[in-house]
Amino acid sequence: MLFALLCTDRADAGSLRAETRAAHLDYLSSFGDAMKFAGPFLGENGKPNGSLVMIEAEDAAAAQAIADGDPYAKAGLFSSVTIRPWVWALNKPDAA
């Protein structure tokens, strides 16, 4: 099942995002085909202020474990993380 990880950065996160970005990207890449897409949310100033990660996981507990293992989360970047099951309805890439 697909899960959306909706992450909001702490307002006082400072340089945490930049400092942990490489480890974050390596971590997400380690999930291979289970990683469907990911990227930052942008504030009105055009700077990242959160993240959206779409991941395939066995269940909500597995999605939570993935969220908890993210270097961004471990560094304390996020003020909140919401995990929601999601169904791909349009423009689904080929399964092949």
TrEMBL record:
- Family membership: Belongs to the YciI family.
All copies of domain YCII-related, residue ranges: 1-86
Tree of life domain: Bacteria
What is the protein name stated in its UniProt record? YCII-related domain-containing protein
Q: Which organism is it from?
A: Consotaella salsifontis
